[in-house]
Amino acid sequence: MRKIVVGTRQSALALTQTGQVVEQLRELSKQLGIECEFELKKIVTKGDRILDVTLSKVGGKGLFVKEIEQAMFDGEIDIAVHSMKDMPAELPEGLRIGAVPRREDARDCLISRESRGLDELPQGAKVGTSSLRRSCQLQNYRPDLQIESIRGNIDSRLKKLETEGFDAILLAAAGLHRIGWQDRISVYIPAEISLPAVGQGALCIECRSDDEFVLGLLKHYNHEPTALAVAAERSFLARLNGGCQVPIGAFASLGDEDGNPAITLTGMVGSPDGKLLLKETMTGTDPDKLGRHVAEALIGQGAEDILATVRS
Protein backbone atom coordinates (compact mmCIF):
# COMPACT_ATOMS: atom_id res chain seq x y z
CA MET A 1 0.00 0.00 0.00
CA ARG A 2 1.53 3.31 -1.11
CA LYS A 3 0.48 6.52 0.64
CA ILE A 4 0.42 9.51 -1.69
CA VAL A 5 0.56 12.88 0.08
CA VAL A 6 -1.08 15.62 -1.98
CA GLY A 7 0.02 19.23 -1.55
CA THR A 8 -2.46 22.07 -2.02
CA ARG A 9 -3.04 25.70 -1.17
CA GLN A 10 -5.56 26.15 1.63
CA SER A 11 -8.16 28.37 -0.04
CA ALA A 12 -11.68 26.99 -0.36
CA LEU A 13 -11.26 26.69 -4.13
CA ALA A 14 -7.88 24.94 -3.89
CA LEU A 15 -9.20 22.47 -1.32
CA THR A 16 -12.34 21.84 -3.38
CA GLN A 17 -10.53 21.15 -6.64
CA THR A 18 -7.83 19.10 -4.90
CA GLY A 19 -10.52 17.05 -3.18
CA GLN A 20 -12.17 16.40 -6.54
CA VAL A 21 -8.84 15.28 -8.03
CA VAL A 22 -8.13 12.96 -5.07
CA GLU A 23 -11.55 11.32 -5.37
CA GLN A 24 -11.02 10.75 -9.09
CA LEU A 25 -7.52 9.33 -8.50
CA ARG A 26 -8.83 7.10 -5.72
CA GLU A 27 -11.49 5.68 -8.05
CA LEU A 28 -8.98 5.33 -10.88
CA SER A 29 -6.52 3.45 -8.67
CA LYS A 30 -9.28 0.98 -7.71
CA GLN A 31 -10.13 0.40 -11.38
CA LEU A 32 -6.45 -0.21 -12.17
CA GLY A 33 -5.93 -2.48 -9.17
CA ILE A 34 -3.28 -0.14 -7.76
CA GLU A 35 -3.17 -0.11 -3.95
CA CYS A 36 -2.71 3.40 -2.59
CA GLU A 37 -4.21 5.85 -0.14
CA PHE A 38 -4.24 9.64 -0.23
CA GLU A 39 -3.55 12.32 2.35
CA LEU A 40 -3.88 16.13 1.92
CA LYS A 41 -1.29 18.61 3.14
CA LYS A 42 -2.16 22.34 3.17
CA ILE A 43 0.65 24.75 2.26
CA VAL A 44 0.69 28.56 2.36
CA THR A 45 2.39 30.26 -0.60
CA LYS A 46 3.85 33.75 -1.07
CA GLY A 47 0.89 34.70 -3.23
CA ASP A 48 -1.46 33.73 -0.39
CA ARG A 49 0.43 35.82 2.18
CA ILE A 50 0.71 39.07 0.22
CA LEU A 51 -2.81 40.33 -0.47
CA ASP A 52 -2.46 44.11 -0.22
CA VAL A 53 -0.78 44.70 -3.59
CA THR A 54 -1.54 43.64 -7.17
CA LEU A 55 -0.02 40.41 -8.48
CA SER A 56 2.02 42.38 -11.02
CA LYS A 57 3.77 44.27 -8.19
CA VAL A 58 4.49 41.21 -6.04
CA GLY A 59 6.93 40.15 -8.75
CA GLY A 60 8.67 36.92 -9.56
CA LYS A 61 7.38 33.66 -10.98
CA GLY A 62 5.59 30.87 -9.22
CA LEU A 63 3.92 33.03 -6.57
CA PHE A 64 1.43 30.27 -5.81
CA VAL A 65 3.62 27.21 -6.36
CA LYS A 66 7.20 27.65 -5.07
CA GLU A 67 6.54 26.61 -1.46
CA ILE A 68 4.54 23.62 -2.65
CA GLU A 69 7.33 22.57 -5.02
CA GLN A 70 9.86 22.87 -2.18
CA ALA A 71 7.70 20.53 -0.09
CA MET A 72 7.91 18.05 -2.95
CA PHE A 73 11.70 18.32 -3.08
CA ASP A 74 11.80 17.84 0.71
CA GLY A 75 9.73 14.65 0.45
CA GLU A 76 6.85 16.11 2.48
CA ILE A 77 4.40 15.62 -0.41
CA ASP A 78 4.32 13.36 -3.48
CA ILE A 79 2.08 15.30 -5.86
CA ALA A 80 0.62 18.79 -6.02
CA VAL A 81 -2.61 20.05 -7.51
CA HIS A 82 -2.20 23.50 -9.04
CA SER A 83 -4.31 25.77 -11.19
CA MET A 84 -2.41 25.59 -14.48
CA LYS A 85 -2.55 29.36 -14.92
CA ASP A 86 -0.38 29.70 -11.78
CA MET A 87 2.41 27.55 -13.23
CA PRO A 88 5.62 29.19 -14.49
CA ALA A 89 6.54 28.41 -18.10
CA GLU A 90 9.54 26.35 -16.93
CA LEU A 91 9.49 23.83 -14.08
CA PRO A 92 12.43 23.20 -11.73
CA GLU A 93 14.72 20.32 -12.65
CA GLY A 94 13.47 17.15 -10.98
CA LEU A 95 9.79 18.03 -11.23
CA ARG A 96 7.36 17.47 -14.09
CA ILE A 97 3.71 17.70 -15.03
CA GLY A 98 2.38 14.18 -14.47
CA ALA A 99 -1.14 14.79 -15.71
CA VAL A 100 -3.47 17.47 -17.04
CA PRO A 101 -7.11 16.57 -16.32
CA ARG A 102 -10.03 17.57 -18.58
CA ARG A 103 -10.35 21.33 -18.76
CA GLU A 104 -13.19 23.31 -17.22
CA ASP A 105 -14.63 26.45 -18.86
CA ALA A 106 -11.61 28.63 -19.70
CA ARG A 107 -13.45 31.94 -20.04
CA ASP A 108 -13.40 34.96 -17.78
CA CYS A 109 -16.74 36.00 -16.33
CA LEU A 110 -18.33 39.14 -14.95
CA ILE A 111 -20.13 39.25 -11.63
CA SER A 112 -22.04 42.50 -11.29
CA ARG A 113 -24.67 44.22 -9.26
CA GLU A 114 -28.14 43.63 -10.69
CA SER A 115 -26.64 40.97 -13.01
CA ARG A 116 -25.66 43.52 -15.61
CA GLY A 117 -23.61 42.44 -18.62
CA LEU A 118 -20.36 44.08 -19.66
CA ASP A 119 -22.07 46.34 -22.20
CA GLU A 120 -24.76 47.29 -19.67
CA LEU A 121 -22.40 48.62 -17.00
CA PRO A 122 -22.86 52.37 -16.51
CA GLN A 123 -20.34 54.89 -17.82
CA GLY A 124 -17.32 55.00 -15.50
CA ALA A 125 -18.37 51.89 -13.58
CA LYS A 126 -15.86 50.60 -10.98
CA VAL A 127 -14.65 47.12 -11.92
CA GLY A 128 -12.30 45.01 -9.80
CA THR A 129 -9.60 42.63 -11.02
CA SER A 130 -6.13 41.61 -9.85
CA SER A 131 -5.02 40.67 -13.37
CA LEU A 132 -3.08 42.91 -15.76
CA ARG A 133 -4.28 40.70 -18.59
CA ARG A 134 -7.95 41.26 -17.74
CA SER A 135 -7.45 44.95 -17.02
CA CYS A 136 -5.65 45.50 -20.32
CA GLN A 137 -8.33 43.84 -22.43
CA LEU A 138 -11.22 45.38 -20.50
CA GLN A 139 -9.80 48.87 -20.94
CA ASN A 140 -9.34 48.20 -24.63
CA TYR A 141 -13.01 47.22 -24.93
CA ARG A 142 -14.47 49.76 -22.49
CA PRO A 143 -11.93 52.57 -21.91
CA ASP A 144 -14.48 54.48 -19.83
CA LEU A 145 -14.47 51.90 -17.02
CA GLN A 146 -12.61 52.54 -13.76
CA ILE A 147 -10.42 49.48 -13.16
CA GLU A 148 -9.23 48.91 -9.59
CA SER A 149 -7.23 46.12 -7.97
CA ILE A 150 -9.05 43.49 -5.94
CA ARG A 151 -7.16 40.59 -4.30
CA GLY A 152 -8.17 37.64 -2.16
CA ASN A 153 -9.96 34.33 -2.59
CA ILE A 154 -13.27 34.02 -4.44
CA ASP A 155 -15.36 34.45 -1.30
CA SER A 156 -13.57 37.61 -0.16
CA ARG A 157 -13.76 39.17 -3.62
CA LEU A 158 -17.48 38.52 -3.80
CA LYS A 159 -17.86 40.22 -0.42
CA LYS A 160 -15.81 43.20 -1.61
CA LEU A 161 -18.23 43.56 -4.53
CA GLU A 162 -20.87 44.39 -1.92
CA THR A 163 -18.77 46.31 0.63
CA GLU A 164 -16.20 48.31 -1.35
CA GLY A 165 -18.33 50.04 -3.95
CA PHE A 166 -17.52 47.90 -6.99
CA ASP A 167 -20.09 47.74 -9.76
CA ALA A 168 -18.61 44.44 -10.99
CA ILE A 169 -15.64 42.12 -10.63
CA LEU A 170 -13.92 39.82 -13.12
CA LEU A 171 -13.06 36.22 -12.21
CA ALA A 172 -12.18 32.95 -13.94
CA ALA A 173 -15.38 31.02 -14.61
CA ALA A 174 -13.68 27.69 -13.85
CA GLY A 175 -13.20 28.45 -10.17
CA LEU A 176 -16.84 29.37 -9.70
CA HIS A 177 -17.90 26.21 -11.53
CA ARG A 178 -15.70 23.97 -9.38
CA ILE A 179 -16.90 25.48 -6.13
CA GLY A 180 -20.53 25.32 -7.25
CA TRP A 181 -21.17 29.05 -7.41
CA GLN A 182 -21.87 29.39 -11.14
CA ASP A 183 -25.25 30.96 -10.31
CA ARG A 184 -23.34 34.08 -9.22
CA ILE A 185 -22.06 34.65 -12.77
CA SER A 186 -23.77 37.57 -14.52
CA VAL A 187 -22.24 36.93 -17.94
CA TYR A 188 -19.38 34.98 -19.52
CA ILE A 189 -16.83 37.14 -21.36
CA PRO A 190 -16.08 35.80 -24.85
CA ALA A 191 -12.43 35.18 -25.70
CA GLU A 192 -12.73 37.77 -28.47
CA ILE A 193 -13.04 40.41 -25.73
CA SER A 194 -10.94 38.85 -22.94
CA LEU A 195 -8.55 36.11 -24.01
CA PRO A 196 -7.97 33.77 -21.03
CA ALA A 197 -4.70 33.35 -19.17
CA VAL A 198 -2.39 30.56 -20.30
CA GLY A 199 -3.80 27.32 -18.90
CA GLN A 200 -6.91 28.95 -17.43
CA GLY A 201 -9.59 26.41 -16.60
CA ALA A 202 -7.07 23.54 -16.51
CA LEU A 203 -5.40 21.88 -13.53
CA CYS A 204 -1.81 20.70 -13.27
CA ILE A 205 -0.85 17.56 -11.35
CA GLU A 206 2.85 18.02 -10.60
CA CYS A 207 5.15 15.30 -9.29
CA ARG A 208 8.79 14.31 -9.01
CA SER A 209 10.34 13.18 -12.29
CA ASP A 210 11.72 9.97 -10.76
CA ASP A 211 8.57 8.77 -8.96
CA GLU A 212 7.64 5.91 -11.27
CA PHE A 213 4.74 4.74 -9.09
CA VAL A 214 3.01 8.12 -9.19
CA LEU A 215 3.79 8.64 -12.89
CA GLY A 216 2.32 5.22 -13.66
CA LEU A 217 -0.95 6.23 -12.01
CA LEU A 218 -1.09 9.76 -13.42
CA LYS A 219 -0.60 8.69 -17.04
CA HIS A 220 -4.08 7.14 -16.87
CA TYR A 221 -5.52 10.41 -15.49
CA ASN A 222 -4.13 12.65 -18.23
CA HIS A 223 -6.64 14.11 -20.71
CA GLU A 224 -4.65 14.28 -23.94
CA PRO A 225 -6.68 16.98 -25.80
CA THR A 226 -6.41 19.31 -22.81
CA ALA A 227 -2.71 18.48 -22.37
CA LEU A 228 -1.98 19.32 -26.03
CA ALA A 229 -3.89 22.61 -25.90
CA VAL A 230 -2.19 23.65 -22.67
CA ALA A 231 1.23 22.65 -24.07
CA ALA A 232 0.74 25.06 -26.99
CA GLU A 233 -0.28 27.87 -24.65
CA ARG A 234 2.68 27.22 -22.34
CA SER A 235 5.11 27.16 -25.26
CA PHE A 236 3.78 30.59 -26.24
CA LEU A 237 4.29 31.81 -22.66
CA ALA A 238 7.81 30.39 -22.46
CA ARG A 239 8.91 32.07 -25.70
CA LEU A 240 7.74 35.43 -24.34
CA ASN A 241 9.24 34.73 -20.90
CA GLY A 242 5.91 35.72 -19.41
CA GLY A 243 4.19 35.44 -16.06
CA CYS A 244 1.35 37.00 -14.07
CA GLN A 245 3.19 40.34 -13.93
CA VAL A 246 2.73 41.00 -17.65
CA PRO A 247 -0.44 41.27 -19.80
CA ILE A 248 -0.31 38.02 -21.81
CA GLY A 249 -3.20 35.77 -22.78
CA ALA A 250 -3.55 32.62 -24.89
CA PHE A 251 -6.13 29.98 -25.68
CA ALA A 252 -5.82 26.83 -27.77
CA SER A 253 -8.54 24.49 -29.02
CA LEU A 254 -8.37 21.20 -30.85
CA GLY A 255 -10.03 20.14 -34.07
CA ASP A 256 -9.10 17.35 -36.43
CA GLU A 257 -7.14 17.70 -39.65
CA ASP A 258 -6.50 14.63 -41.86
CA GLY A 259 -6.60 12.36 -38.84
CA ASN A 260 -4.15 14.51 -36.86
CA PRO A 261 -5.14 16.76 -33.95
CA ALA A 262 -5.08 20.29 -35.37
CA ILE A 263 -4.50 22.89 -32.66
CA THR A 264 -5.70 26.46 -33.16
CA LEU A 265 -3.91 28.92 -30.88
CA THR A 266 -4.64 32.61 -30.32
CA GLY A 267 -2.09 34.64 -28.39
CA MET A 268 -2.29 38.18 -27.04
CA VAL A 269 0.10 40.79 -25.65
CA GLY A 270 -1.16 44.20 -24.62
CA SER A 271 -0.09 47.41 -22.93
CA PRO A 272 -1.35 47.82 -19.35
CA ASP A 273 -3.57 50.75 -20.35
CA GLY A 274 -5.24 48.71 -23.08
CA LYS A 275 -4.40 51.19 -25.81
CA LEU A 276 -2.26 48.67 -27.68
CA LEU A 277 -3.47 45.09 -28.11
CA LEU A 278 -1.60 42.62 -30.31
CA LYS A 279 -3.23 39.30 -31.30
CA GLU A 280 -2.27 36.43 -33.59
CA THR A 281 -3.99 33.15 -34.45
CA MET A 282 -2.34 30.13 -36.06
CA THR A 283 -3.11 26.43 -36.53
CA GLY A 284 -0.69 23.50 -36.35
CA THR A 285 -0.20 19.98 -35.04
CA ASP A 286 2.99 20.40 -32.96
CA PRO A 287 2.07 22.31 -29.75
CA ASP A 288 5.61 23.43 -28.99
CA LYS A 289 6.28 24.80 -32.48
CA LEU A 290 2.83 26.38 -32.69
CA GLY A 291 3.28 28.25 -29.42
CA ARG A 292 6.67 29.55 -30.48
CA HIS A 293 5.44 30.60 -33.92
CA VAL A 294 2.53 32.59 -32.49
CA ALA A 295 4.87 34.26 -30.00
CA GLU A 296 7.39 35.11 -32.71
CA ALA A 297 4.64 36.61 -34.86
CA LEU A 298 3.70 38.92 -31.98
CA ILE A 299 7.36 39.73 -31.35
CA GLY A 300 7.48 40.84 -34.98
CA GLN A 301 4.59 43.20 -34.22
CA GLY A 302 6.36 44.76 -31.22
CA ALA A 303 5.39 42.50 -28.31
CA GLU A 304 8.88 42.46 -26.80
CA ASP A 305 8.91 46.27 -26.58
CA ILE A 306 5.57 46.21 -24.73
CA LEU A 307 6.77 43.52 -22.30
CA ALA A 308 10.10 45.24 -21.71
CA THR A 309 8.30 48.45 -20.80
CA VAL A 310 5.98 46.60 -18.40
CA ARG A 311 8.85 44.75 -16.72
CA SER A 312 10.88 47.94 -16.24
TrEMBL record:
Alphabetized Gene3D superfamilies for the sequence: Periplasmic binding protein-like II, Porphobilinogen deaminase, C-terminal domain
Domain Porphobilinogen deaminase N-terminal: residue ranges: 4-214
Modified positions (S-(dipyrrolylmethanemethyl)cysteine) in chain numbering: 244
Catalysed reaction, written as an equation: 4 porphobilinogen + H2O = hydroxymethylbilane + 4 NH4(+)
Domain Porphobilinogen deaminase C-terminal: 228-299
Cofactor binding: number and manner: Binds 1 dipyrromethane group covalently.
Cofactor: dipyrromethane
InterPro entries (alphabetical): HemC, Porphobilin_deaminase_cofac_BS, Porphobilin_deaminase_N, Porphobilinogen_deaminase_C, Porphobilinogen_deaminase_C_sf
Gene Ontology MF annotations: hydroxymethylbilane synthase activity
Family annotation (PANTHER family): PORPHOBILINOGEN DEAMINASE (PTHR11557:SF0)
Extra remark beyond the main annotation: The porphobilinogen subunits are added to the dipyrromethane group.
Purpose: Tetrapolymerization of the monopyrrole PBG into the hydroxymethylbilane pre-uroporphyrinogen in several discrete steps.
Family: Belongs to the HMBS family.
Quaternary structure, from the entry: Monomer.
Protein name: Porphobilinogen deaminase
